[in-house]
């Protein structure tokens, strides 16, 4: 009985402190904005889907390099950070979630650079969430994602 109670307490404490996929993605976006190494956010060989083109970096380190290059282009346009406008979990299957996030990208002067949608496939592993796919897309005229 003592072991059963101890096990239940451990499970409850892990559940109470477990990060959600949305919190994980917010941490990812925050680290992206300040230029931190993002490799720990990815599985090995994640898929980046740009329309009909699928880019599969050979490692999480290479995925970080792709994101670094994207960030450099945004910085040239005065990018500072992204603000989450809304998010929606489209699918939850076992440890997999598909989450669409509507973002407003903010410039250094505080004005809006643009609005974009990002859809992330994330998987919950023993060591936390990891991104397995990312698909950016344009927002609609109202600035919303088509799937939200």
Detailed description of the structure:
This protein has 148 residues and is of the alpha+beta class. Helix content is 32%, strand content 43%. The chain has three helices and six strands. The protein has helices at 2-17, 21-34, 60-76, and strands spanning 42-50, 53-55, 79-93, 96-107, 112-125, 128-138. Strands 2-1-6-5-4-3 form a six-stranded mixed sheet, with helices on one face. The chain is globular and about 40 Å long.
Gap from first CA to last CA: 47 Å
- Strand tally: 6
Radius of gyration: 17 Å
Estimate what percentage of residues fall within beta strands: 35-45%
Shape: globular
The number of distinct helices, counting runs of at least 4 residues, comes to 3
Mean pLDDT: 86
Q: Numbering strands along the chain, what is their spatial order in the largest sheet?
A: 2-1-6-5-4-3
Q: Pick out the low-confidence regions.
A: 1-17
Topology overview:
Blueprint: H1 2-17, H2 21-34, E1 42-50, E2 53-55, H3 60-76, E3 79-93, E4 96-107, E5 112-125, E6 128-138
Parallel strand pairs: 1-6
Antiparallel strand pairs: 1-2, 3-4, 4-5, 5-6
């Amino acid at each position: 009985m003592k072991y059963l109670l101890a096990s239940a307490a451990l499970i409850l404490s892990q559940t109470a402190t477990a990060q959600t996929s949305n919190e994980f993605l917010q941490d990812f976006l925050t680290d992206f904005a300040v230029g931190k190494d993002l490799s720990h956010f990815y599985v090995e060989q994640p898929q980046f889907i740009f329309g009909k083109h699928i880019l599969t970096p050979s490692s999480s380190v290479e995925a970080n390099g792709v994101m670094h290059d994207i960030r450099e282009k945004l910085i040239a346009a005065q990018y500072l950070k992204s603000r989450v406008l809304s998010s929606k979990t489209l699918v939850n299957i076992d440890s997999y979630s598909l989450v669409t996030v509507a973002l407003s990208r903010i410039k250094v002067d505080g004005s809006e650079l643009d609005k974009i949608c990002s859809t992330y496939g994330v998987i919950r592993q023993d060591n936390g969430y990891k991104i397995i796919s990312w698909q950016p897309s344009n927002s609609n005229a109202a600035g919303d994602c088509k799937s939200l």
